[in-house]
Amino acid sequence: MPGPSVSRRTVLAGITAAAAIVKASRPAQAAQSFTDWGWPEPYERVSVQSIAWLKEKGWWPLTVGYQPPWTGQNALNIAVDRLQLLQKRGLEVTFTPFDAGPPLIEAFTAGRIQVGGSGNFPYLSLVDRNVPARGVINYSLLTHGVVVPNDSPFQSLKDLKGAASPLTIGIVTGSSAEFYFQAAAVANGVEIGKDVILKNLPLSEQLQLPKGVAAVVPWDHTLSLLTDDRKTGRLIDSSHRYSIYEGIGFVRAELIENVPDVVQAITDSFIEAALWIRLKPADAVDLVRQDPALKAVDPAFIAGQIAKNNNLFKPSALIPQPRFWAAENGRVRAWLKERNRLTREIGEAEYAATYAPQFAAATATKLGWTVPQRPVFLSADWTGVIGSVPYPDYFNQTTSNTPQRFPEAGDLHKAWSFGGKTYQA
Asked: Cis peptide before 4, with omega less than 30 degrees from 0?
C-alpha cells in the first residue's frame, strides 16, 4: 500500500536541514595562519624522493651562487641563507659568493652550482650555449649611470658634445653599462669616437674617478658609493630611460624536470625573504653586513641600498614577466650578436621559453596575490613602446624614493596578512 505523498519542497527542506546539522557538527575551519612578514604556515617540505634524487645526483647539499657586490640580489640570498628558509623546507644548502656574473655562469655551466642569479648579459651566454637554465624570479631594476666629479662643468649627457678633443669615458666595455651608454649617446646626439672615447675601466678604478677621465659609467652599488657615500661624484644621467635592466634568478632545468617541489621551495624561499626584508629592513642590514664582502660597509649605506634595491618595488615584482623581458632584451641580443658575444640569433620566443614562471605564480596563489599582467614598475597608462627609446618616465630608483604600496586594489585574490594587519581582496 503506497505511503502518504511527500512534496518536493518538503524533501529539499529536509536535505537542507540535514546539511546544516552536519556542518554544525564539524569543527570550524581555522583561518590561514601567517608569519609576521606574511608567509603562510606551516611550511611545505620537499619530498623524501626528491632529497634522494638530489643525493644521487651529487647535488646534496644544493649549491646557490650569488654576487655580494650586487646589493639587491645579495640581501635576498643572505636572508634565505641566514634565516635558513630552505632548511625549513627540508633542504640542505650551501651559498657560494662570486665577484661577478661571468664566473658564476661558468660555475653554473660546469654544474658546480645549481641555483644562481645574474643580469641579462651573463644569462644570455647560458641561453646561447644551450645550458639548461630556467629563470624562476626577476630581481628588481638596477640603476646604471654617468657620474662626473663634483667640480665637473657637465650637467647632462648633451654637454659632452662638441669638445675640442674627445672626452674619455671610463666604462666596463662589453657590459650592460656600455649598452646603456651607447643607446643614451645616440639619443642625445653624442658621437662615440668623435665627442667621446670609451676606456675600459673596472669598477674598482671607476671608484677613484681618475684624472684624465671626464666621466665613469658604473652601476649600483658602485654608483651609490660615489654619489651617496663618498660624495665625490654627481649623477648626470641614468639608464632607466634607455635600458630596463633585467636581473634573473635561475635554476638548472633538471631540477624542474625531476624535482619540481625543490624548485617550488627555492622560489618560495626567495619571495619569503623579500617579505622579511620588507618588514624588517634594520634587521636585514645586520644580516647583510655579516657577509665578508660587505662587513666594512657603512650600515647607513646598506640601509639605503636595501630601500632602493629591495623595498622600493612591490614584492610581486619578483614574479617573472617572460614576454616583457624577451621584448625589452631584443636590442640587447642584437647588440651582443653584432659584437660576437653571442654565436647565434636568439629570438623572443626562445628567450621567453627559458623562464619557468609557473613556480612564482604558484607562490602567488598560496599567498593570495594576483599575478601581475605587466611589470609592476609600469603604470596602466604608461605610453612607452618597448624598444623605442628614450622611454617616458616610469617607477624606478631615479623617479621615486617612496616605496610602492602593497597591496593595492587588484593585488590580492584572497585575504593576506602582513605586519599584524590582514588585507582583504
From this structure: no
Q: Where in the chain is the domain with CATH 3.40.190.10?
A: 34-141+245-423, 145-241
Q: What is the pLDDT of residues 101-124, one digit of tens each?
A: 889 999 999 999 999 999 999 999
Are 265 and 43 in contact, with CB atoms under 8 Å apart? Answer: no
Q: Where are the alpha helices (DSSP H) in 238-353?
A: 253-258, 260-279, 281-288, 299-309, 322-328, 330-338, 348-352
CATH superfamily of 145-241: Periplasmic binding protein-like II (3.40.190.10)
Cell numbers 623562464: residue: 355
| pTM: predicted TM-score of the whole model, two decimal places | 0.90
Cβ–Cβ < 8 Å for 408, 380: no
Q: 13-57 pLDDT, tens per residue?
A: 443 443 443 343 344 445 678 999 999 999 999 999 999 999 999
| Sign of the torsion formed by the C-alpha atoms of 220, 224, 229 and 231 | positive
CA angle (175 as vertex; 171, 181 as ends), nearest 5: 60
Report residue 124: phi and psi, to 5°. -65, -30
CATH match of 34-141+245-423 with 3.40.190.10: yes
Whole-angstrom Cα distance, residue 37 to residue 280? 8
**Bridge partners of 147?**
216, 235
Cell, residue 182: 651607447
Q: How many CA atoms lie within 13 A of 276 on its CB side?
A: 24
Q: Taking residues 253-268, report their average pLDDT.
A: 98
CA distances from 355 to 184, 204, 256, 350, 358 (A): 29, 33, 11, 10, 9
Q: Name the 3-class secondary structure at 30.
A: coil
Q: Where is 127: in which H helix or E strand? A: helix 120-128
* Alpha-carbon distances, residue 388 vs 187, 376, 384 (angstroms): 10, 20, 8
> Hey, what amino acid is at 368?
G
Sheet holding 145-149, edge to edge: 196-200, 167-171, 215-216, 145-149, 233-238
How far, in Å, CA of 390 to CA of 302, rounded? Answer: 30
